[in-house]
Specification:
heterodimer, A: 281 residues, alpha/beta, 4-stranded antiparallel beta sheet, 10 strands, B: 6-stranded mixed beta sheet, binds adenosine-5'-triphosphate, binds magnesium ion
């Protein structure tokens, strides 16, 4: 479980570019949750996950993971592989000669034996949909979306308990996006993996998350189930977001007098409800 | 017009690890049009787009910009002046340490006079909603903010063509809409030709033309309506359709007689309500 209390983070504190990126954040995220974080650009999402994974030290406040303060030295080693972060623009982190070596980098640092490393690389490559022929390529010879997959695989290969994904699917084609997210959802279910997913795709968040955190100007603006959150389309629009277009449609149909249930947020649900009303189900 | 003739391109051309991407592609973009290129990862979109301003040069065949052959090194400047590029990744495009200097960089290089530069920079920053940040340091901006600055930098060069390679991948929904509105506006009011590469199907809805690439080739080409009604073919090539188009597709598959070329929420609303009202009226008759 992740417990965040009175967390503040200020960039370049005291300097001319001082920026309070996180303001009084209080959050509890239980183990095994699939949390979506949405928020306008610059709202503090990336900063928040970097604090959670121990890369940025809070200016004030506390982050506990399973009751342990991640910024105390004695806990660092234990927590190091527990939390895995896929950075925004993770392709910047690719630097090895081959894609295989890049994915193997994390597991190698964990001192696993060659066999296990290989198993994990192949497993992670499969999760993200990279083919064996890609593994021997230089990461620089991949297309944008392929690089992204390689970078995600590098973190999955470390098998973290908490997986933080900072816009992992930006730049992926729709099929790749669905495939990777489906695999991550599977991992989440099978391994009771805690997932925190930052995304600008309201559609993906609506489909996957059980809890949504809405950030606005460094603060947690609201938190709730996807249905609760996306019912507030107007409020979302005011802070740079929106609801999936399917929810917008269903709301308008309700306005027109069609007795659809409120809070429909996926195409599947919408189709089912409309078919019922048309006597086709 | 931008035109490719039998365009061939391989990475590592002539080496043992040669990788062929474009195999004799014939493609053209009409002046003043708004074209969207779709295609799965690795289908060759960026490779093609990089030929439009001579970042990549053909291994075979040619690419012409307003008749200027991109292979001719003496024309490079003329070509780059006409065709501006916005890339997938803003970090590689931002050069200066202050936002407004970054936006001024392009026009300065073109030798534009300084009052004119001032005007262009301000307008470009306003167009992307980053005017307030003109004195900020780009590397202190969030991903989405940087992307908008990169777009402003190109707008300030006032090119005839702007090629945007997934410019909105990192933006929030409102930012994305603003950028698409900005691009559409540049196209409609200033007549700038737009080529937009995207993985967001919704962004293709307002284009004049949608082109789908697969394996370095063009496999579909038409208006958004013509292309997006082919739901199955699109899914087979790894793409998707707007949510409302998908909804209508599922409804059709379940025996609802609804149009197959619905693209927007309002169109969809109208269609469904029409069918629903007809259905309820029928129901009452037999009650
Ligand atoms: N290194 C830095 N120094 C100073 N300010 C920064 C730095 N990194 C980010 N910021 C600022 O902190 C705020 C939060 O940034 P953050 O990257 O967390 O936003 P975000 O929600 O992830 O945005 P996006 O959706 O664009 O990725 C922004 O206003 C940003 O400009
Ligand atoms: N520098 C390079 N060297 C070798 N091969 C490359 C290089 N860049 C791209 N490729 C390969 O060429 C093919 C086309 O890549 P391209 O970048 O044009 O795809 P794309 O359609 O833009 O994909 P994406 O949606 O992921 O951006 C891919 O298979 C890719 O692996
Ligand atoms: Mg971010
Ligand atoms: Mg590309």
């Amino acid at each position: 479980m992740i417990k965040i209390t009175n967390l503040n983070y200020v960039y370049s504190a005291g300097g001319p570019f001082e920026k309070a990126a996180l303001v009084d954040i209080n959050l509890n995220i239980e183990k095994g949750r699939f949390v979506g974080i949405i928020g306008h650009t610059g709202s503090g999402k990336s900063t928040l996950v970097q604090v959670i994974c121990g890369l940025l030290k809070p200016t004030s406040g506390q982050v506990l993971i399973d009751g342990k303060n991640i910024y105390e030295d004695k806990n660092k080693k234990e927590l190091r592989y527990k939390v895995g972060l896929v950075f925004q623009y993770p392709e910047h982190q690719l630097f090895e000669e081959t894609v295989y070596k890049d994915i193997a980098f994390g597991p190698k640092n964990m001192n696993l034996d060659e066999e296990e490393i290989k198993r994990r690389v192949l497993y992670a490559a499969k999760v993200v949909g990279l083919k064996e022929r890609h593994l021997e390529k230089s990461p620089f010879d991949l297309s944008g979306g392929q690089k992204r997959r390689a970078a995600i695989a590098g973190v999955i290969a470390m098998k973290p308990e908490i997986l933080l994904l900072d816009e992992p699917t930006a730049g992926l084609d729709p099929k790749g996006r669905d495939e990777i997210l489906r695999e991550i959802k599977e991992l989440h279910k099978k391994e009771n993996l805690t997932v925190i997913l930052i995304s600008h795709s309201m559609e993906d968040i609506a489909k996957l998350a059980d809890t949504v955190i809405v950030m606005n100007k460094g603060k947690v603006h609201m938190m709730g189930s996807p249905k609760e959150i996306f019912a507030k389309a107007n409020e979302l629009r005011q802070i740079g977001l929106n609801a999936p277009s399917i929810s917008e449609l269903c709301q308008k149909l309700r306005d027109d007098g069609m007795p659809l249930p409120p809070n429909i947020i996926t195409v599947q649900d919408a189709a089912e409800e409309i078919l019922k009303l048309l006597g086709k189900l | 017009m931008i035109e490719t003739k039998n365009l061939e391109f391989s990475y590592n051309h002539g080496k043992e690890n040669e990788f062929r991407v474009l195999k004799g592609l014939n493609f053209s973009v009409k002046k003043g049009s708004f074209t969207v290129i779709l295609g799965h990862n690795g289908s060759g979109k960026s490779t093609l787009a990089k030929h439009f301003n001579a970042i990549l040069l053909p291994c075979g065949g040619s690419c012409f910009v307003e008749g200027l052959d991109t292979k001719d090194p003496s024309l490079l400047w003329e070509i780059r002046k006409r065709v501006g590029m916005v890339f997938q990744n803003p970090d590689n495009q931002i050069v200066a340490t202050v936002v407004e200097e970054d936006v001024a960089f392009g026009p300065e290089n073109l030798g534009v006079k300084s009052e004119e530069i001032r005007k262009r920079v301000d307008n470009a920053l306003k167009a992307v909603g980053m005017y307030e940040y003109r004195k900020s340091a780009p590397h202190h901006l969030s991903g989405g903010q940087k992307q908008r600055v990169a777009i402003a930098g190109i707008i300030a060069m006032e090119p005839e063509y702007i090629v945007l390679d997934e410019p909105t991948a990192m933006l929030d929904p409102v930012g994305r809409k603003e950028v698409i509105k900005t691009i559409t506006n540049l196209n409609k009011t200033m007549g700038i030709t737009i080529v937009l590469i995207t993985h967001y199907m919704d962004e293709a809805v307002g284009a004049d033309r949608v082109v789908v690439m697969d394996g370095g080739e063009i496999i579909m080409d038409g208006t958004p309506r013509e292309v997006f009604r082919q739901v199955k073919a699109l899914k087979d090539t790894g793409l998707d359709v707007p949510q409302v188009t998908e909804l209508c597709y599922i409804l059709r598959q379940n025996g609802v007689d609804i149009r197959d070329d619905v693209l927007t929420v309002d169109e969809c609303r109208e269609e469904i309500i029409k069918i629903y009202n007809k259905h309820s009226a029928k129901g009452q008759k037999y009650d």
